[in-house]
Design brief:
The complex is a heterodimer of chains A (about 475) and B (about 55). Chain A is mostly helical and about 475 residues long. In chain A, about 65% of the residues lie in helices and about 0% in strands. Chain A has a single domain, classed as Hydantoin permease (Orthogonal Bundle), CATH 1.10.4160.10. In chain B, helix 1 packs antiparallel against helix 2. The chains are: A mainly alpha (about 475), B mainly alpha (about 55).
């Protein structure tokens, strides 16, 4: 899943060199924080291809691939579900996010401020910061499993929710501390290292997939199908404590795995630099490299572990990587986790600091890093990462529905778009209520009607848009009213 | 020089990939493949920063 994106609030830490050079030649990207990106500052298609293909090969792929196996998914369900789900994600970027981004050319944050006021952006920042800490925690825990291999530290079992070894706790905190300090001190050199690592990581994921297939005895497509069905994604019962995954689970997870960025509009900040909305199709490179090849490769690694020892169900990326690639495999896991955890902690720090610019960014980033490290100690986060990822998207997505409704439906329904800006208010209630009421409705759907978290985002989008439009109609008709 | 380094870096990635296929085809051992993975990876990280930084 995507982990970090260039936003106007901070310098893009992991974007490819081509973007940085393009930005620097026209002034820094932050120049357009509070104004539309001018035509002369737009970027070519290859820039977006580079960003997507590098950002979607991250440490979390090493968790997600094996977890599909844990959830008992079948081979057809996985391979076809991922194919279609990723296609829907690409179409979402192309037809929902990019057209608004190209039309308005504003960041997500500035657009939200115009719609809901500065205070709403503050709340969004808190939510984003906390959620980023959870994602960074997953990255740290993945990296910790790589460090744990040469140190011969006991890895957490699939059923462990609490830390099962002092050694792993020490490694997590040590790694978290180093990553946090680097993030807090500024990360120019590490950002450069991340850019250098990206092509290597992409090739390494393909390589471990090929090696894994060979280890499973696959040398022809027919053999692959046989092994996929009977060895890797057998489609039987999931591991105890995990819901059974079907085709629909895979499809919705791969579609909504990055919902915060496409339907949730996080990538308005990215695509405001696109010359045409069709550049949204560039997301296909990231989806099919990171969320198809890498997830499948990671699943194959896990299958080899199960073949070697059916009782060894733990999802620990370090040993998986070492088994296939030796030292290079450990390096893959460590670098994939490190290079993605670092910018996320930096951004979490920035999000928290946005609440009070007088706070020291250094200290706030350290606090964010400490929070991520504490969360990373608990292996339950990694075991339940599919749910965590779905929850992350669900929490942020309603603001995307609000932006979509504001852009397309306000004027036709006789209302004013960007109401907070035009009314000169710092907090416009309808989008805030739409956000929280949608989350409440999602909770009800989940708890009372048993709708699994992976399927909640679709109805939630319509709920958020409807609530926003109805409340806006009420408020704009009677600005002094309660709504 | 920059061009030569870039060529070398990508050649290393190509070797990394070819070695994986060679292992899959039974042409080389797992141990040798792991060694090639390590060497080509180190070569990438030694050479790529120079031409990537130069293009910044």
């Amino acid at each position: 899943m995507s982990t970090s994106r260039p936003t106007p609030e901070d310098p893009p830490p992991v974007e490819p060199a081509s973007v940085r050079s393009a930005s620097s030649s026209r002034g820094p990207a932050e120049e357009y924080e509070r104004q539309p990106v001018p035509e002369r500052a737009t970027k070519p298609l290859r820039t977006f291809i580079g960003i997507f293909s590098s950002e979607h090969v991250a440490a979390t792929e090493l968790l997600i691939g094996p977890l599909f196996v844990v959830h008992g998914v079948g081979a057809f369900d996985l391979l076809v579900g991922l194919l279609l789900g990723n296609a829907l994600a690409v179409l979402s970027w192309t037809f929902i996010t990019a057209p608004i981004a190209v039309k308005k050319r504003l960041t997500l944050y500035f657009q939200l401020e115009k719609i809901g006021g500065a205070r709403l952006v503050d709340i969004y920042n808190i939510a984003n910061g906390v959620l980023w800490c959870f994602i960074a925690a997953a990255m740290i825990s993945v990296s910790a499993t790589a460090v744990g291999v040469p140190l011969n530290i006991k890895m957490p079992e699939l059923t462990d929710y609490l830390p099962n070894s002092v050694g792993m706790v020490v490694v997590v905190f040590a790694l978290g501390a180093v990553i946090s300090v680097i993030a807090a001190r500024g990360y120019d050199s590490l950002a450069r290292f991340a850019v250098v690592s990206a092509p290597w990581m992409a090739v390494m994921f393909v390589v471990v997939g090929i090696v894994a297939l060979a280890k499973l005895g696959v040398s022809t497509p027919a053999q692959f199908w046989d092994v996929a069905n009977h060895v890797v994604w057998k489609g039987g019962n999931p591991q105890p404590g995990f819901p059974k995954f079907t085709f629909w689970h895979v499809l919705f997870f791969s579609w909504f795995g990055n919902i915060a960025w496409h339907i949730g509009m996080g990538d308005l900040s990215l695509f405001r630099y696109a010359r045409k909305s069709s550049y949204g199709l560039a997301s296909a490179t990231g989806m099919y490299l990171g969320h198809y090849v890498a997830w499948i490769a990671a699943g194959l690694l896990y299958a080899i572990q199960l073949v070697n020892d059916p009782n060894d169900t733990k999802v620990a990326a370090g040993p998986l990587g070492y088994n296939i690639g030796g030292v290079a495999g450990i390096a893959l896991v460590l670098i994939a986790g490190w290079t993605t955890a670092n910018p996320i902690i930096y951004r979490a720090g920035l999000a928290f600091q946005g609440l009070n610019p007088k706070w020291s960014r250094f200290r706030v980033t350290l606090v964010a890093g400490a929070l991520a490290s504490i969360i990373a100690v608990f292996p339950g986060l990694s075991a339940k990462f599919l749910s965590v990822a779905a929850l992350y998207g669900l929490i942020l997505m309603p603001m995307g529905a609000v932006i979509f409704a504001d852009h397309y439906w306000m004027k036709p329904l006789g209302m004013r778009e960007f109401y907070a800006e035009k009314a000169g208010i710092r907090f416009y209630l309808p989008p805030a209520i739409a956000w929280f009421a949608t989350l409440l409705a999602s909770l009800v759907l989940n708890q009372k009607f048993g709708v699994q978290i992976f399927f909640l985002a679709l109805p939630a989008w319509f709920i958020a848009a409807a609530i926003y439009l109805v409340l806006s109609k009420m408020h704009q008709r009677n600005p002094g009213g309660c709504a | 020089m920059k061009y030569a380094l870039k060529l070398f870096s990508f050649a290393m990635l190509a070797v990394l990939l070819v070695a994986a296929f060679a292992y899959a085809g039974g042409r080389i051992t797992e141990t040798l493949n792991k060694q090639i993975m390590l060497i080509t990876s180190i070569a990438w990280f030694i050479t790529a920063p120079f031409w990537m930084r130069a293009s910044d």
